[in-house]
Each structure stands twice: as structure tokens, then as C-alpha cells.
Amino acid sequence: MEEVSTDIPSRLRFLWITYKPAIILGTVSIILILLSITILIKSVQTTTPITFSTEGEASVAGAMRGSEVAVDVAGGVLHPGVYRLPSGSRVEDAIRAAGGLSAEADSDRLAKLVNRAAKLSDGAKLYIPKVGDTVTGSRPVNDGSSSTGGFETSSSVATGSLPVSINAASQSELEALSGVGPATARKIIDGRPYRGLEELVTKKAMGQSLFGKLKDQLTL
């Protein structure tokens, strides 16, 4: 037994001396393989997975929304409601989107007050006058000022009792406001765009007194 036990170390030394290069090379190879596997596993765990999310679709949808305007169409149309139209659309496009004019539409007042070629702004309210409409806050005209069917009223891309858009109304629509003549209407148009109603005064489109009388009839 002692011979066997003493013989083992000598055999190991013999093997080490004989196969030393192969043993070293094999050991190094195993270590490198293990390191490579470890690095590969870690890289797989930390790599951001490639996912096909809806972010791209959301950004495209956002861009599309940015190229649209939402318009509330009411009054003498077949299908009143809120419509989304391409940016740059005209009043005529909104009327068509709402199904066209209804039998109740007042064609005479429409022709006088509504500029069907005017561009629509986002969030605009478009009211098509109807036959027999009574305008809130209007009064009979007896001073030669602009009138619609015998009543003084305000109008923009909308008309009737609705506020006038200082960013969208035409020259004639602005002149329909009490106290606004051709010169003032021109100043209002030249001062566009407006981010607040008060800019009518700061941009010297009208005086404070006139603004105080009209501010409840105006909108952006």
C-alpha cells in the first residue's frame, strides 16, 4: 500500500512534465470559454429588448392631429357637430363636412355675413344662420351701420349670437361689430395673430374704451 501511495505523486509529476503544455492550454481554453459564456449572458440580460411598441404610431397620430383643426359646426346644416378637417381648410369645407346647408339655412344672411373662403382655426365655432334666428343682444339698426336682415349683429367664421374670432374673422365680419369701422377692422387684421384678447389694445388695434364694450363679443 505504501508503494502505491508513494507512486501516485511520481505519476502525477510524470504526467505534469509530459503533458504540461496541453494541460495549460486546456485550462486556459476552459477559462476563456467560461468567461465568454459569462459575458454573453450578461450582455443578453442588459441589452434593451427590441420591441415593436405603439410609440411610433402615437407620434404619427400626434403629427396628424397637429395637421388638423377641430371645428364645431352648428346652425343651418344637416349634421351639426364637431368635425376634424385638414389644416388650411375653409369654411366651405366645414359646411360640406356637416352635410351641407339645411332647408332652414338663411341663404341671404349667409351670403352677407359668412366668408365661405375663410380659413378655419383650431377650436373655431362655425354657426350658419337659420331663417327666423333671433340674435341675443342685437337691436334694430337705424343708424346706417352694417346690418343683417334688419338687425345689428356680430359674426366671424360664425355668426348669430356667437363671439367673433379676432384671428379668423374677415374685414366685413369685423365691421359688423358695433363701433368697428373699416380702419379699425384693418388694424385688427394687421395685428394678427393674437394670443389674448387684450392684445387688441396693446397692439393698438383699438382703444381701451371700445375694447371694454366689445370684449364679451370677441374670442380668439
From TrEMBL:
SUPFAM superfamilies given in the database record: PsbU/PolX domain-like
Gene Ontology cellular-component annotations: type II protein secretion system complex
Entry keywords, A to Z: Membrane, Transmembrane, Transmembrane helix
Highest taxon listed in the record's lineage: Bacteria
Soluble ligand binding domain location: 71-109
Any single Pfam family the record assigns to this protein: SLBB
InterPro entries assigned: Endo/Exo/Phosphatase_dom_1, Soluble_ligand-bd
GO biological process, one term: protein secretion by the type II secretion system
TM stretches of this protein: 21-41
PANTHER family membership: ENDONUCLEASE/EXONUCLEASE/PHOSPHATASE FAMILY DOMAIN-CONTAINING PROTEIN 1 (PTHR21180), ENDONUCLEASE_EXONUCLEASE_PHOSPHATASE FAMILY DOMAIN-CONTAINING PROTEIN 1 (PTHR21180:SF32)
Protein name per its UniProtKB record: Soluble ligand binding domain-containing protein
Species whose genome carries this gene: Candidatus Gottesmanbacteria bacterium RIFCSPLOWO2_01_FULL_49_10
Lineage: Bacteria, Candidatus Gottesmaniibacteriota
